[in-house]
């Protein structure tokens, strides 16, 4: 959600979305997002705001990828924080709940919170 919002607001493709747990045996890399969500509310909220991420696929963040990023926004929760992120000066930590079930209100609340954080990040890094 954050990468899509950033790219829309900046009219760019500068933000990537990658996960720290993606690639684990119970969450293989390369899964299509549309197949991961049990309800459509996340996608409907994004589409209502001009972004379609249904066909995006999951990718895992690897240590060597950090060199290509100016900033890394992490919403990772313990115990899924890799050691290479814990003390990295490029990382900004956002506390965003990762719910197991998403209804319309949860999707819209998450969108609003992330939209505000991304907007603030853009202003602070101009």
Walk me through what this model shows.
The chain is mostly helical and 126 residues long. It has a single domain, classed as Rossmann fold (3-Layer(aba) Sandwich), CATH 3.40.50.2300. 37% of the residues lie in helices and 5% in strands. The protein is built from five helices and two strands. A two-stranded parallel ribbon has the order 1-2. Helix 1 crosses helix 5 and helix 3 packs across helix 5. The mean pLDDT is 91.
List strands and helices in order, with pairings.
Elements: H1 2-10, H2 33-36, H3 41-48, E1 72-74, H4 83-86, E2 91-93, H5 104-124
Parallel strand pairs: 1-2
How many distinct domains?
1
Major sheet characteristics: 2 strands, parallel
- Count of DSSP helices? 5
The top level CATH class name: Alpha Beta
List the secondary-structure elements in sequence, H or E.
Answer: HHHEHEH
Q: Fraction of residues in helices?
A: 25-40%
- Overall mean pLDDT: 91
Ranges where pLDDT stays below 50 over 5 or more residues in a row are: none
Q: Give me the CATH fold name.
A: Rossmann fold
CATH architecture name? 3-Layer(aba) Sandwich
CATH superfamily label: Response regulator
Shape: globular
Number of strands: 2
């Amino acid at each position: 959600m954050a990468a899509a919002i950033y790219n829309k607001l900046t009219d760019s493709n500068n933000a990537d979305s990658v996960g720290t747990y993606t690639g684990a045996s119970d969450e293989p890399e390369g899964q299509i997002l549309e197949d991961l969500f049990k309800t459509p509310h996340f996608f409907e909220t994004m589409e209502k705001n001009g972004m379609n991420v249904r066909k995006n696929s999951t990718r895992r963040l690897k240590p060597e990828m950090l060199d290509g990023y100016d900033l890394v926004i992490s919403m990772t929760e313990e115990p899924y924080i890799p050691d290479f992120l814990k003390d990295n000066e490029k990382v900004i930590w956002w506390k965003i709940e990762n719910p197991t079930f998403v209804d319309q209100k949860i999707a819209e609340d998450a969108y609003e919170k992330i939209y505000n954080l991304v907007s603030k990040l853009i202003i602070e890094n101009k």
